[in-house]
Design goal:
CATH topology of the largest domain: Immunoglobulin-like
Distance between the termini: 43 Å
Number of domains: 2
Strand content: 35-45%
Number of strands: 9
């Protein structure tokens, strides 16, 4: 600002109003996270807590110049009282297994409204391609069994 509004009350009020509007704008990622939380359809699902995450280990191996045989970028384990969800993040896909082993469906829920379903086979295995981008969470529903919702990944 050049200070030319000092003698003009209307211009001063317009400048102040613009500054207040800019300070009150909510970032899009906050809006999307709020919508996702509000639109939680499987309220009966138990929240699966993160019990293991190799994100730090992957960074150490990368810095040391080591390569994993399976090219696993990150391994995560989520657990509830009734089930465990193991996930390997690989360059081309998320590969996971749910224990106890039984068929079902896993959904990828991103920050927006998009939801994608992927089958879980009779051994509890699932593959999600491509690897989701941005924050996402997985919703697991086993046929005739428990359901769970992971924290944000």
């Amino acid at each position: 600002m050049d200070g030319s509004w000092l003698g003009d009350d209307d211009r001063l009020l317009a400048e102040l109003g613009e500054a207040m509007r800019a300070a009150q704008e909510v970032p899009d990622r906050f809006i999307q996270a709020g919508k996702s939380a509000f639109a939680w359809h499987d309220i009966d699902s138990e929240l699966a807590r993160l019990v293991s995450d190799t994100a730090g280990e992957a960074a150490q191996h990368s810095a040391a110049g080591m390569r994993s045989e399976r090219a696993v970028l990150r391994s995560l384990t989520f657990a509830t009282a009734e089930l465990t969800i193991d996930i390997d993040v690989q360059p081309d896909a998320l590969r996971g297994q749910v224990v106890p082993s039984r068929p079902g469906t896993v959904q990828v829920r991103g920050g927006g409204d998009a939801v994608q379903d992927y089958p879980i086979d009779e051994l509890g295995w699932f593959v999600i391609r491509p690897v989701p981008t941005g924050p996402y969470r997985l919703s697991v529903q086993l046929d005739g069994g428990p359901s769970a919702l992971t924290d944000w990944i």
